[in-house]
Every structure is written in C-alpha cells, then in structure tokens.
Amino acid sequence: MSDKPLETAWLVGDSNFLHLKESTDGFSYEVFHTGQPRKVAAGQISVQQVEKSPIRSPLAAARTLAIAEARLNGGRVARVSVNMLERFVDSDVRRRRIWEPETLPDNDIRFITSDYRELFRIPNGGTILVDYPDRHFAARCEHLDDYHTRINGEVFHICQFAELLERNGGTCRPEPELLRDEAAWRLGSKNYLTVQACESGWDYSIYDQSFHTVDGGQLDRPELSILEARDAILLDNGMQNRSRTQVGYEFVTEKAEAVEEREGAAKRESVLGQLSTLKEIAPEPKTGSKRSQEASL
After folding, report:
1. How many CB atoms lie within 10 A of CB 184?
2. In a 3-state reduction of DSSP, which class is residue 147?
3. Helix, strand, or coil here: 101?
C-alpha cells in the first residue's frame, strides 16, 4: 500500500459510481446508483485479496474485486472526481463536505453543456475521451480555476469547450480504463507510443510517423495501471500535451519491425556493395620479390 492513502471514484458502466478508499486493512468501498439517493452496496477488500490478484496495480486490483463483489457491470470503467459523490446523502464524501472539506479535492475539472448543466468531473491531470463523427482521441486536462482548464495544452473556458463540441457534433467523457499488459497510441500526427508490461514495470518505445524508433526505455513502476504508465512516460518525454488515439499494438510493432528489417537489409547490402567495390579496385598482388625474380634468371 502507498504512504498516502489512496481515494478514487469511478463511473462503472453508465449507471453506478464506485468509491474506493484505502485503509490499513485494504480498501473500503461504497456503490451508488445514479438514479437513487443512497448507497446500494458497501464492503471491504482486504490486503490479502489485493496481493493475490493477478492485476499488478493495487488500485486496479481493488477496483476489479469491488466491482465483482458488488455484482456491477464493469464493462466500461472510468475515473471521475470524488466530488461527484457529494449529492448522495449517505456518502462519506457528503459527510466530509460538511465536516472536513479540507480532505476533498478543490482542483477537479468540470465538464458541462453550453447551458451550464454539469456532465461530469475528473481529477486534475485526468484524461477525457473526445468523440467527433470522424475521429476520437484522449486528451489530458489541467485545472486552472473553476471555469478554465487546459486541454492538450490549449486553454478553454469550460463553456467555450462545450460550445466547440456541440458545434462540431462532438461529445466527451472520462477516458475508460484499460486492463491490458500492452497497448499503443498515435500521439498527435507525428509519433506512436507502445507500452508493454515487464517484470519490473513497463517497457515503452516511441516511433516517428514512419515507424522509425526515436526513443525507448523502461518505467520501473509496476504499481501503475497502463494508462498511468502511458501518462508518466509522456510527461517524462515532454509529450503530455499530445492527443492520444488508441491503435492496435500489433499494427505498430509489426510496422516498426518491418522498417527495422528493411533498413537492416539495406545496410547489409550496402556493406557488401562496398566490399565488392574495394575488391574490384584493389591492385593485383605481386607474385614474388625483385630478388627472387633476379635469382630465377
């Protein structure tokens, strides 16, 4: 478990919220249905359960176990701000808003319609999935104040962003989590990123638009989920403001391998060609020394 207690909220499917809070015994959880004012389930996920889970991230393991124990439809799970639970009358968040407001985040990011109806909130630094009729991508969001956010490096008033989406037939929602050991994304229009689980954390490679390798390495943080690892890698490489469009992992790796093989073959052919040229222009070897030739006369 971490030094600082973890606390997260998740939108499970389209109709349930899951609240996870770390304790010395594991994770306590509460479940709320969007159409009901009170909690519909609660329980505890023990440290032993988390440790036995094949999922390496403790938070992801606890979340998956809680979803299964509460019998929720966990087909799509996305992280949201814990402040979204304030409206439920018997939630821990509602109690703390009254008695311990300093324990709740004050820098989450609101997403609204153009008439200011709130859709959802995400934690500062979280990601949204933006869907347009002809494209979709994930974007990192940074809190600036209650009415402004930076999305992929560009500053928006929250109403301005809502109007932009509506004008172009787009929608947005919290980016769903991935329970995978490998994934790939197109970063803007110039790069690709692959992330793959390894024994000590995550291996990654960054490619240009022609699938040439431009960087790579290892992130020694196995406790992170694959999306958290992706975002940490992009931050380390100064690419955190790139849009992220998920693409096939095998598609990217096969393209990169084909480029590497083609360039390797061209290099070998070039070396052989140079050797052949050197052989052609090399002088004929002498058959004997001058002294030996004179002795033979």
Report:
1. 24
2. coil
3. helix
